[in-house]
Amino acid sequence: MYIKNLYVPDDSFTDVNPEQAVDKEYVKQLAELTRLLFKLSEVKNIFSKAQVEYLPIPEDPKKALVQFLEAVGITYGNLQTLSDKSAMVTKSLEYLGEILKYIKPYLGKKISSAGLQLTYWMMGHVYRVLKSYFEFKGSLLPPRLASILAFILQLVKETNIDVSEIELLLPGVLKCLMLVSEPQVKKLATENLQYMVKACQVGSGGEPATQLTSVFRQFIQDYGMRYDYQIYSILEIVVALDQQVVIHLISTLTQSLKNSERKWGLGRNIAQREAYSKLLSHLGQVGQDEIQRLENDNAESIL
User: Cα torsion at 158, 161, 167, 172 (round to 10°)?
Assistant: First the structure.
C-alpha cells in the first residue's frame, strides 16, 4: 500500500499564525490520508474479515484510523497458519510505514500543540497494534521477528517514544534476546534495548525510570529461575547504559538466585553465583557489597 501526494509541512507557516496554520493543515492532511486509505479494496477486505464496521466516507479521521488499526489486529489474530501470519505482518508493516511517513514531519514541529497531541495519540495506537504482532506463545516465536524489530527500532529512533509505550514493547524485546539465537534478531533486539533505555533516561531526567525498573523486575520474576544466564547477559547491556537501573534490581536478582537453588535442592549453585557475581562486578561498591554477602553465604553453608 502506497499513499502518494500527501503534503509535507515546511516552515512557511511560521510567518503568519504558525500554530493555527499547522494545526489546520495537519487535520486536513489527516482527513486526506484517511480518505485515500479507505478507498483501497484491500482495506475494505480487512474490515470485512475483522467484522468491523466500514465507513466508505469516514467523518471522523481519528476514529477511522483507530478502527483500521483495530481491524488489522483482529485480522492478524484470526489467522491460523504461520505463512498467513507472516504475510499479514509484512502487509501491516507497510500500513504502519505509511502512517509513520505521514506523521514524521510533524514530530519536530513544536509550534503545533494540537498537531503534536494528535500525532502522539496516533502513535500510541500504533504501538498497541505492534504489541499484538510481538507476543510469544510459549516457545513459539512470532513470524517475521527481524522485520518487526527493524520497524520498532525505526519508530524508537524517529519518534519521541513515551515510557508507557516502552512498557508495552520492551518485554517482547527482552524475550527476543533471551530465546532467539538468530544473529540478525539478536542485533536488532540489542539495538532496540539500547535505544529504549536511553529514551527512558531522557524521559525521566536522568533518573532511573520506575516503569523501566518494573519491567525488568517482572521479567526476572517470570524467567529468572529458568533463564538466569541469559538475563545476566541482557543486564550487562543495560549496565553499560544505566548502572542505576540494574542496582535497583539487585534484591530481585539475589532472591531469584536463592529461589532457584531451593527449587533444585542441590545447595549453592556455584556456576550461577559466579555468573551473577560477574554482573555485580560492574556495579561499583554496591555490587561488591552484594558479592561479599554471597561469599558469606557460601562460607556459612560450608560450616
Answer: -10
Same domain, 182 and 268: yes
Cell numbers at 107, concatenated:
514530530
CA distances from 78 to 37, 74, 118, 145, 302 (A): 22, 6, 30, 19, 57
Is residue 144 situated within a structural domain?
no
Cell of 285: 561498591
Q: 174-198: per-residue pLDDT in tens? A: 999 999 989 999 999 999 999 999 9
Which pLDDT belongs to residue 31? Answer: 75
d(CA 143, CA 41): 25
| Residues 157 and 292 placed together within one structural domain of the fold | yes
Task: Clarify whether residues 93 and 34 are in a common domain.
Answer: yes
| Nearest Cα to Cα of residue 196 among 149, 138, 137 | 149
Residue 118 domain-assigned (yes or no): no
Q: Which domain holds residue 40?
A: 7-12+19-79+87-104
DSSP character at residue 208: P
The model's pTM? 0.70
What is the per-residue pLDDT across 115-143, written as a single tens digit (0 to 9) for each?
555 555 666 666 666 766 667 776 677 77
Per-residue exposure over 6-23, b if at least 16 CB sit within 10 Å of its own CB, e if not: eeebeeebeeeeebebbb
Please indicate, yes or no, if residue 115 is contained in any of the structural domains. Answer: no
251 in the same domain as 157: yes
- Domain assignment present for residue 56? The answer is yes
Euclidean distance between the first and the last CA atom of the chain, given in angstroms as a whole number: 70
Beta bridge partners of 137: 140
**Rounded to an integer, what distance in angstroms lies between the CA atom of residue 233 and that of residue 214?**
18
How many distinct structural domains can be found in the chain? 2
Q: Cα(127)–Cα(164) distance, rounded to whole angstroms? A: 10
Return all residues near 192 (Cβ < 8 A) that are at least 6 apart: 149, 152, 153, 156, 169, 173
